[in-house]
Amino acid sequence: MSFVKEPRPRHLAAPLLLYTLLVSSLAHSAEPVFTVRDSAIPDVLAPESLPYSFYTFEPDEYWAEPEDSWWMNFSNWVIRQERIHGTTVQNFGAWADRTLSGSTHSLPNNESYLRIGFAAESEYSDPAQFKPELRFRLDVPTTQQKLRLVIESESDELIPLGERERDRQLTEPNRTDTETTGALRFLSQVGDAINLSTDVGGRLRLPPEMFWRTTASKGWQLDDAWALNVQQRVYYYHTRGWGARSWFGADRSLGNGWHFYTSSELEWLHQDRKFEAAQILSTRKRLSHRSVLTPRLGALGESQPSWRTTSYFADLTWRYRLYEDWLFAELIPALEFPREKSFKDQASVVFRIEMYFSGTIDRH
Question: Which domain of life is it from (predicted)?
Fold first, then answer.
């Protein structure tokens, strides 16, 4: 018997080597196997499964019985009012939609709302006193698709520019009473991008005062970060004459939840033969699913008797959602430096509770 190895054919060496390398490569490149555990949605969203940061109370207070107090009684009363009157407002809006539009269904994009609040302002040596606030808008379509009926509790054109910019710092006694207005609004577009609306109506008083206004607006996304919005309005009131205002706004994200806003506004008051101007810088950060923080800096000016600054101001708005999406609280410390006070600081703090019974305006 011979133990001499027989030589392998050369034509088999290359395929065997290729096979060996291929098997080794597949063995090393095989993906790991993961086991996926399916969890029921009720288990994932169960109260005990949510993180502690989701709640506004301590874990040991989860099963605590509510204490009977004036705050609990007041809160329950507010909730009952929303459930009673909120349905009434919604039903009225739906009825107005169906009646004035001639449709059997309520139409979307209805900007009607009813806002009720209580605000208290405290200044130097002036204790806080709660004052009621009421604002509303009825915005419903007619039988024509681009024609709407708009009834509002106030008119922006009759409110001074400085007051509009500082609206959240003020309580109802410090605001200009513009009376309720009603108008027919015609919506149209210029090209594919410019939105145009024209209102013709009157101030609902005796004797009534007729007015008209035309507003054009357009927005651009300049790049991945910056957005630009422009609005131009021209208006005429029978007793106040005509006026015009231009508004420019830009915003971008700053990262870490902060968003930056800047706006410039210039308004011409023909009756007074002067311009009023405003420059506002602000940022906004959502602290949680309930609260938002908004610091602002602003400067106001006018052109008569010459171009000059009339006021500087700074405020910080902390807005907190108390219940669902209709009950909010605000705390607004503010500092103003008006020219009429020789630019001496005027500090104030406003505390406000607001209820939205309906509407699509920005609640946050």
Answer: Bacteria
Bridge partners (DSSP) of residue 279 are 264, 299
Paired strand residues for 138: 151
- Is residue 153 within 8 A of residue 117, CB to CB? The reply is no
Residue 43 C-beta-side C-alpha neighbours within 13 Å = 4
Please name the residues in contact with 62: beta carbons below 8 A apart, sequence gap of 6 or more: 47, 55
Taking alpha carbons only, the member of 284, 275, 286, 290 closest to residue 323 is 290
Handedness of CA 233, 186, 108, 181 (dihedral sign): positive
The yes-or-no verdict on residue 208 having pLDDT over 50 is: yes
Can you say whether residue 224 is alpha, beta or left, with left for phi > 0 and alpha for psi between -120 and 50 degrees?
alpha
The pTM assigned to this predicted structure is 0.72
Give the model confidence (pLDDT) of 30-66 as tens digits. Answer: 455 545 556 677 777 777 777 767 776 676 776 677 6
**Residue with the two structure tokens 């009977």:** 68
d(CA 46, CA 317): 33
Characterize 142-172 residue by residue with b for buried, 16 or more Cβ atoms within 10 angstroms of its Cβ, and e for exposed.
eeeeeebbbbbebbebbbebbebbbebbbbe
Q: What is the DSSP secondary structure assignment for residue 276, as one 8-state letter?
A: E
End-to-end CA distance of the chain: 96
Q: Residue type at 308?
A: R
DSSP letter (8 states) at residue 49: G
Both tokens assigned to 140: 């419903």
Domain boundary assignment for the chain: 72-358
- The domain 72-358: what is its CATH number? 2.40.160
